[in-house]
Amino acid sequence: MKISFRPVCGAAIGAVCLLSSFPVNAQDDAVPLVLDDTAPQSVSPSPVMGTLDTIVVTGKAENLLGVAPSASKGQSSAEELAERPFLRRGELLEVVPGMIITQHSGGGKANQYFLRGINLDHGTDFAIFVDSMPVNNRTHGHGQGYADINFLIPELVEELEYFKGPYFSQFGDFSSAGAARFRLYRELPEGIASFSIGTDNYYRSLIADSVQAGPGVATFALEYNYYDGPWVSPDELQRWNGFFRYVVGDDDDYASFTVMGYDVGWDATDQVPSRLIRSGAIDRFGFVDPTVGGDSHRYSVSADFQRTGESGVTRGSVYAGTYELDLYSNFTLFLDDPVRGDQFNQFDSRWFAGATVDHSFEGMELLGRQADVSIGAQTQHDWIDGVALRKTSERRLVSTVREDDVYEASLSGYGSVEMHWTDWMRTQTGIRGDLYHFDVNANSLPENSGSDWDGIVSPKAGVVFGPWYETEFYLNGGFGFHSNDARGVTISRDPLSGESLDTVPALVRTKGAEFGVRTQIVPDLTSTVSVWYLHSDSELVYVGDAGNIEAGDGSERYGVEWSNYWRPRSWLYVDTEFTATESYFKGSGELIENAVPYSFSGGITLGEATGPFGSLRARYFSPRPLNGDGSVESSDALQLNARIGYLTATQ
Question: Whole-structure pTM over 0.85, yes or no?
Fold first, then answer.
């Protein structure tokens, strides 16, 4: 078993700078918020025509009876996120039960995600949104669905909402395993000025505040982070994050304009052969290639609005931005080229834009019953100017394996109906349609150029029974999909060997089902259990590290998830989450590599809104198969995080 200890947020010492409009806050990486021990009462909607009261749900322990569409749907509030110790901001997603976050090749890359038996690599099959803006990158230089949330400032997150399975019509591409949406503050509850210093040359400073500006509220934040890590060859990670938002209106009707910016550069220590460590040739934190690492940036603007009328609520969003990743890696060291080494460069530079609009008709009557109807449309466009794979040596170009310009566009429409048939049964039905266009200009090998269209329709359904004795039962099913890299859709020849290749389907069908139970029959304890199934027609992926396509059989995954959230006192919170998963290829029956069979996470948090606080968390995942018959496995791993501090009263 591998056990790791690390400084929380890299900081052994935290200092807070006091500005005139900022309260003292000795808790690093946390917005000082007041914990609310009062849970709303469960709601049993009436089948008769009428308008249901709006229910605001914030945390995992809150009462979702009468509200949640599935057992595995949930959310975490800013309070819960602030209570968790973390080093990487990707670990914010570990509030999703069963989600495992890891990292390799330095802190500037997207994290590795594992969920429901899928090695999501850097985002495939798990969709991530910041407000209404998608994070996953299509046809990315490092991997399809690459989702880097390093541009997010954790203190600005008001809520993280998560969904699992292909049962929700508002989510399309990359959402077969699930989806998560970070909702950012429209106005900070108070200003923040913090400075943190820790081991391994960790430094972080943050200033953020919301101020009245004319008819609205302006929110700004600026963050700087430096970190070397424990490595012999220091990471020298330098990251800048900026944020500005202007909002007018109230909770019912508002408009906002947001600018976000992110820039990072780092060196990295890649994987090294264990035999070199055993022989003493290099240290455990040593390196073979000192020139791997990269640079990345992301800048975006977005505008959102919401209008509440007699017929319901209309929401809309438009966004645009630019993104770049220049990544150098070396996994095989000197295997292919004993002289210059096997280092390679993955490059991605793009502009992106999109929009979404939806309307929720609340309190409608269908078939003489209460109904909530939602319809919406989405569009997304990516102009990729040079997505490339190159062989390099010490970050100098040796040769180009593949370089392409790509335009990818999609248009989607969706709708859902929630019917309240009785006071103990409600149903959700939905449908989604997606149309995609791919246009590839292969600069390095013109034979791989081309264009294509593809579309897919995905129905969804669910039924909820209860509540009885503070318990509800859920049954969900639906069809989903994920897109493949546009270069695989038009490929005809292997860029390395020159051999002929078949194209791959642009859109791959997935389908899933889930049965679950949610109960609060024990006072102050929320428990959920779900049994789920997920099928994919093919494990087709574009392999960015090799420049070609690997096609696999269809796959099947099934498992069980059990979560418990207990808050017996305002100052005490305990949570546990356990998952068990089976994953295999349908044709051969072989195990799917890197699928995690078992995982556990849990923690205990102590403290009130002011005064001393502390938290201790554990995360474990079992050995996972590294080949099809399971004869080679990874090690299991246990990670412990602890945090302690003192909160002063809000000024």
Answer: yes
